[in-house]
Amino acid sequence: QVQLVESGGGLVQPGGSLRLSCAASGSIFSNSVMGWYRQAPGKQRELVAIITRRGNTNYADYADSVKGRFTISRDNAKNTVYLQMNSLKPEDTAVYYCNAKQSLGSVTTDYWGQGTQVTVSS
User: What does the alpha-carbon distance between residue 105 and residue 22 come to, in Å, rounded to a whole number?
Assistant: First the structure.
């Protein structure tokens, strides 16, 4: 059974930092593009950052709104992906979801975590 378990959310003041973690079970981690999405109240879920591993190199991409502030990383030995969030702003407040996009041949399957709340407020 595939599971993605997020942790690390919470309440932080503007300008503060948080690190989210997502531990993946099963055999999905090594052949998946891992990503973080977020959904604020009344808004659609949006991509925050993704990280792809090709050979021994990780490639990351970010939404414009978080570039320079957020960093995504993955530890393949621990089957874990992280999102380091610095210089947080109130508009970063949302539920953050971990995503694994697994491709096996021509079939792509999305897996989602349960979400973790991030609230940026003074």
Answer: 25
Percent of the chain with pLDDT over 90: 78
Tokens 């059974």 belong to which residue? 1
User: Are the CB atoms for 36 and 94 separated by under 8 Å?
Assistant: no
Distance CA 46, CA 38 (A): 5
pLDDT tens sequence across 42-93 = 999 999 999 998 888 899 999 999 999 999 999 988 999 999 999 999 999 9
Q: In sequence order, which residues have a C-beta less than 8 Å from that of residue 86 and are 6 or more positions away? A: 17, 69, 70, 71
